[in-house]
Amino acid sequence: MNSPKILRLSGDKSISHRALMLASISYGDNRITNLCNGADVQSTIDCLTACGASINKNGNSCNITSGILSNPTTPLNCGNSGTTMRLLAGLIAGQKISAVLYGDSSLSKRPMDRVIKPLKKIGADIKYIDNKIIINKSELIGGEILNSTSSAQVKSSIILAALNANATTNLTETYQTRDHTEKMISYHSSKSIMLEDNRITIKPSKLHIENIEIPGDLSKASFLIAYACLKPGSDILFENILINPRRIGFINTLNKMGARISIENKKSKYGEKVGSIRVKYNGRLKNIRVDEQAVRDMIDEIPILSIVAALSKGVMTISGISELKLKESNRVLGIASNLRSMGCDIKEVNEELSIKGQSYLYNTNIKTYSDHRIAMAFHIASFFSKHTMIIDDLECIKISFPDFFNKLDEIML
Ligand code: S3P
Prior knowledge:
four-stranded mixed sheet, 14 helices, 24 strands, globular, binds shikimate-3-phosphate
């Protein structure tokens, strides 16, 4: 029996942000291993350090000693990272400190009222002016919140704030989104949070985190998984990868399209499910309809899914794409305009994308809009297309996956 190529990836980006933030407000010494090595997570580290957290980083591990945050002396630069800006807004509002948060030109265009409104409702003195979030020292009162924005960042921002309110907060979610914040709090401090169906109860309390090992990042793996599904003869095993049910929409969708992807060696680590993902090439895939919940369960993987769809049989329809227009770039525009210029028949009608698959595409000039996931998705497309591709910005890949090209080389050898 042939053995697969084995790959390990640095930690999940979403979980890395949360681990750093929660460890910064938790008692005692905390150690985090296998942090995500992207620039977004460094933005979170820099902002927390400016708020007085003592974070000693050594490679992809760090020790944090903190417990109490203090007023930063300068505005906090969140760079390109929506997760940093939105989650920190909640964390800082709860810490009874004052701060100003801002980001780069992409982050400055993204909606912030979605976190400002609920944080105000639980008592935060917070406003959004000239692309900056301004937080004044606040006493949070907790209360009832309905989150009907399909966003884990909004939910997490409210939870982080509510941990330090004067009373309980009850948060009801209309949509199911990634649940890492509540899982992490529940694992380390079960009395601080209660989870039932779509309702989360946050009871103010001090946390004690100690150790967290971050599972490998499925969103990073998705680009390499797509390559393996498209490249005859591939057989790759990604070890120690996050397999949280709210994140594996991409794997489930590819399997429904006929891919051969199995999850082995499943375990629970620090409250999250991890496993080894084995991908074997299984012929050309067949497009299917992708519904709104599946999109939520792979919201960051839609650019690379669109590339797979454009090279598979039949037509893929992807519903509920409105949130994709609010990411690091308008991803519907980035996907549709670039795929169209590669010769693909792609349409956007009523918040639905329809992509007609074909045997190959034509390489051309690709505009990434400085969006890391658009850049990686189209770089993968270039291997299955004729002529030569020129991508206008590959630097942006360092936002989430600085070793993308090295890992790709490893599986292509
Ligand atoms: C994230 C949630 C998602 C995702 C983003 C990371 C998180 O954003 O697209 O890359 O870590 O909570 P939304 O909350 O805006 O859906």
